[in-house]
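S.,

Sequence below, as promised.
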Amino acid sequence: QATEAQPKPVPDLELPHSIHGEKVLLVDDESSIRKLWKRLLESMDYQVTTAVDGNEAYELFSNNPSKFDLVITDLSIPGLTGIQLAEKILQQRKNLPIILATGNASNIDIEALPQLGITELLMKPVSRDQMRLIVNKALNKAERTHHPKKTTSLG
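The prediction came back faster than expected:
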């Protein structure tokens, strides 16, 4: 007699983030990547604003710092680099999740990224599933930072 396989439980970080049309600032100087990722994120019900360089992205952000729920920036962009952009943004909103995207991580000190405020590293090229997972992880980490679980003291 055959038994149906039980689905494996999914770890918390892989569970889909509760999507409420979060607003994403997407920064990449490569037009094809920017357009592809914008369509991909919009298909996941995110609202996406794009910028072609770090200076434009910082201007968009600083005009309304509370507008965005997530920033995805390429490391190597004209103007401010992805890391410089992250540093400036985090001076205004220290818990805003920032995903740093790159096609080459050989020059990046990955262990130092959290100290710089980078929430996740996204390696190019990226699949739809990888994008969904990384975005969900970043938003879930930010949610836990903003709304930590309450603990009770029995003392």
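The first strand starts at residue 23 and ends at 27.

Coffee later?
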